[in-house]
């Protein structure tokens, strides 16, 4: 097993153990110099010429290809842009168009709310009996019927880390004649993903979590290569047009994955992400997975030994878990604030989930032990039981 630890490539503040890279990854050290270069050498000096000379226009597909390597997507089948919520909408809309005789989008009640909101917005717009149907995560498999146009699932549950079986559910969707959309927000850079093997039609994901692209980093969308020239883009912006600079009055979708572009790419954010992707050079996701599970198993064992009042909310079976571990505690919000105050950064998800992300590129076994010592101190000495930790002021 190759060692994937490369802490020296990240900026990690002194005295902090960062267990929240599943929400916002830390900054790779090489990013500021790259951004400074893009600003001072490209934007400042090249002005509008940067679109051609600095290759800004080609970034969305170039960066998409570097992400594709981590998620089993062929070069040229992934493009960057917009936010994940927008990419969810795009994938869903294109999927629904592929099954015009069907009216139901199926998802699960554990899905990230924005995915469900986007689906609600889409079915509201479509009218004509379109419906978003949500079921318990464990009931998804038996709910895939021949009424379903699109199955939309997030592979790794944002609260508990519970994983759906991508290959099996995609097959069930296809057997029932449905289109499959996977949200890889908590998968890309966290666990091995093989989109090509899954055969799903669409996948989307964000890049500010495990891919360390920075706050507001652009999202990605994958379209199965055999569909890329026929998928209909509902968000028909000019940069998805076949010839944007012809300024035609009518939309003609671009070639292949290019049609999933919408408008002007966020060049600075894209440059930060492109630079951040370099920390993955030579990294094999199978090694990341093994290292992540080692850290998670150590964490669960040490927490359960030290703090029996915390109840594991994540699957105990490591193979059923993504790259995070969550514990339930009635006063989880206050407890997490007390833990953060002592330098261990995790987060809280209502109603009672204390969530910790494991990112073996910059976390090791000593970090886990040190984090557990802080959690033990907070819990055994009830340090959370302090009015200052009970005011629900944080946005994250
Ligand atoms: C599974 C999932 N889907 C969608 C989103 C929303 O992403 P964005 O804010 O980039 O639109 C998130 C995270 O915020 C997420 O975890
Ligand atoms: N995207 C976020 C943001 O803009 C602010 C705060 C948090 C986020 C997140 O990504 C939350 C994350 N999707 C989650 O799993 O809870």
From TrEMBL:
The cross-references to Pfam families, in alphabetical order and at most eight, read: KYNU_C (PF22580)
Catalytic class of the enzyme:
hydrolase
Ligase listed as a keyword: no
Write out the GO biological process terms.
Answer: anthranilate metabolic process; L-kynurenine catabolic process; L-tryptophan catabolic process to kynurenine; NAD+ biosynthetic process; quinolinate biosynthetic process
Q: Which UniProt keywords apply?
A: Hydrolase, Pyridine nucleotide biosynthesis, Pyridoxal phosphate
MF term (GO), any: pyridoxal phosphate binding
Keyword Disulfide bond listed: no
Question: How does this polypeptide assemble, per the annotation?
Answer: Homodimer.
Q: What is this protein called?
A: Kynureninase
The organism is Sulfitobacter geojensis
């Amino acid at each position: 097993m190759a060692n994937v630890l490369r802490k020296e490539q990240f900026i990690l503040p002194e005295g902090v153990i960062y267990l929240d890279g599943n929400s916002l990854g830390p900054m790779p050290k090489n990013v500021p110099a790259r951004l400074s270069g893009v600003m001072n050498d490209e934007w400042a000096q090249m002005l509008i010429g940067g679109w051609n000379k600095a290759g800004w226009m080609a970034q969305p597909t170039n960066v998409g290809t570097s992400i594709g390597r981590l998620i089993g997507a062929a070069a040229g089948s992934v493009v960057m842009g917009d936010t994940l919520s927008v990419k969810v909408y795009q994938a869903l809309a294109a999927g629904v168009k592929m099954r015009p005789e069907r009216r139901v989008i199926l998802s699960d009640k554990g899905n990230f709310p924005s995915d469900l909101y986007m689906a609600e917005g889409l079915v509201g717009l479509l009218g004509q009996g379109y419906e978003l149907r949500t079921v318990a995560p464990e009931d998804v498999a038996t709910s895939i019927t021949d009424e379903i146009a699109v199955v939309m699932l997030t592979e790794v549950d944002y609260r508990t880390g519970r994983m759906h079986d991508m290959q099996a559910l995609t097959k069930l969707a296809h057997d029932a004649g449905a289109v499959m959309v996977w949200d890889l927000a908590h998968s890309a850079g966290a666990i091995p993903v093989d989109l090509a093997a899954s055969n799903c039609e669409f996948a989307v994901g964000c890049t500010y979590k495990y891919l360390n692209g920075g706050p507001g980093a652009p999202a990605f969308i994958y379209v199965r290569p055999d569909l890329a020239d026929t998928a209909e883009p509902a968000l028909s912006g000019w940069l998805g047009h076949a010839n944007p600079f012809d300024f035609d009055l009518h939309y003609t979708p671009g070639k292949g994955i290019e049609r999933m572009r919408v408008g002007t790419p966020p060049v600075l954010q894209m440059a930060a992400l492109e630079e951040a992707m370099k920390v993955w050079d030579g990294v094999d996701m199978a090694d990341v997975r093994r290292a992540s599970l080692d850290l998670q198993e150590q964490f669960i064992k040490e927490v359960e030994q030290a703090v029996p009042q915390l109840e594991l909310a994540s699957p105990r079976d490591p193979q059923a878990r993504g790259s995070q571990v969550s514990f339930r505690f009635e006063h989880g919000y206050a407890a997490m604030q007390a833990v953060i105050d002592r330098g261990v950064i995790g987060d809280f998800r209502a109603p009672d989930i204390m969530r910790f992300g494991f990112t073996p590129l910059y976390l090791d076994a000593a970090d886990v032990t040190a984090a557990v010592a802080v959690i033990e101190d907070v819990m055994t000495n009830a340090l959370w039981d302090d009015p200052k930790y009970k005011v629900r002021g944080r946005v994250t």
